[in-house]
Design goal:
homodimer, globular, mainly alpha, 219 residues, disordered N terminus, DNA-binding, Tetracycline Repressor, domain 2
DNA sequence: CGCTAATCTAGAACAAGTTTCAGACTTGAT
DNA sequence: ATCAAGTCTGAAACTTGTTCTAGATTAGCG
């Protein structure tokens, strides 16, 4: 049975591990632990890429990442935590990718819409993964708030980046929040087959008009 | 153990029961079946009003509504189906209530915002119930699409009612869809404690501006 | 080296959603 | 009144998320 029992650890130490994105202050992980965490996230994304939310089964994740079930739960206290962390991971990657080629639109609204559509196209390439991540995100309860918030901040950063707005006004931030709402909800309707890709595009473009409404001067 | 086994049925007949809202064409239910359906929905709402999503446990719903577990599943093929049907039920009620006192705002945007805030206040009175319904709604997968769509149509009807708009343009319908997106997503952030009531209010008011953007002439 | 605390592992156990089944009851038709 | 089909019940079984436990391993430290 021990398919992965021959890892032979060498370092460890912290008491509580939690899901982080980049490097917020927290108990530092040893490289071995960092490697475990990475294996877990990789397995999670991999399983999600096939069957979506349902295909990410904790026992399978544990096995694929060569970690005991109990250990998996020590790293990620629930399936939702795991998938939200997976999303953090993917989002980071996405943000990096998007940064490289900034959108071309004239107005801030156009640039934001273009950026979101770019992200959308990326998600379309892995619809099952998108399903798992988005479903987890919206299903998350209070116990996952910090992690979901982190995802939200990351998303906000991406949008603000696209706007090219250094210090947005409160009004603009409201618009950005509404855009995020629309983004998540539109993804859900698409993932559950209740809206077409074209529909999502229209919704995004529609909501992005709010930006021009709150920030007449593009640059 | 048979706590509810003494009902002694007298009528029945259809083969497949599905969740409906008002009266779409489908296998007509006998009064006895209609009564069962009603008991189930009532139990569902009751349990949801306490602990929210998690408190709605299928075994408990079955027991509270004096129906065998298998029967519950015949009426509602999953917990999600049940909760979405519960939402349909509540929404209908809500729509009736809202109809009575139409919003007072000058512009369509104001009226819609006022209506949604009214609905929001109603939800605040039963936050657990709101939690159960909204979580189910956004977590629903393709197998629940018809029912979720029905909820969506009902919501759209409420918003169009508030707009006082008889035959909306495609642009306006887009705006309405975006408003619904924002509505759902904002509710979620509130329910999971990531946004305050005030925050939700702002988001609603912000997104409602889109209406004036697409329909300059109020009436 | 030898000790102590923390971590990891394998596996059992538990909880709640879902499925399945045999049998009792109802219904509608003959 | 009787029969065939469909429905409901009670209970067990199965699935997957989550928790718990005992023991092996490792790390940090004198």
């Amino acid at each position: 049975m021990p398919a992965e029992a021959k890892v032979s650890a060498k370092v460890n130490k912290p008491a509580k591990v939690e899901a982080r994105a980049a490097a917020p202050a927290s108990p530092p992980l040893t490289e071995r632990q960092e490697a475990r965490r990475r294996r877990i996230l990789h397995a999670s994304a991999q399983l999600a890429s096939r069957g979506g939310f349902d295909a990410v089964q904790m026992r399978e994740v544990a096995e694929s990442s060569q970690v005991a079930l109990g250990t998996l739960y020590r790293y990620f206290p629930s399936k939702i935590h795991l998938l939200v962390a997976t999303m953090q991971d993917q989002l980071e990657h996405m943000h990096g990718t998007l940064r490289k080629k900034p959108p071309q639109g004239e107005t801030a609204a156009e640039r934001v819409a273009e950026t979101l559509m770019r992200a959308f196209r990326a998600l379309q390439r892995e619809p099952h993964l998108a399903d798992a991540m988005v479903r987890a995100l919206t299903f998350a309860d209070r116990s996952v708030s910090p992690e979901v918030d982190q995802v939200s901040r990351q998303t906000t950063a991406i949008i603000l980046d696209a706007m090219g707005q250094e210090n947005p006004t409160p009004e603009q931030l409201s618009a950005v929040r509404v855009i995020e709402h629309t983004w998540h909800s539109a993804l859900i309707t698409w993932l559950s087959g209740r809206a077409s890709i074209a529909q999502v595009k229209i919704d995004i473009e529609t909501v992005c008009r709010l930006i021009d409404l709150t920030a007449p001067a593009p640059r």
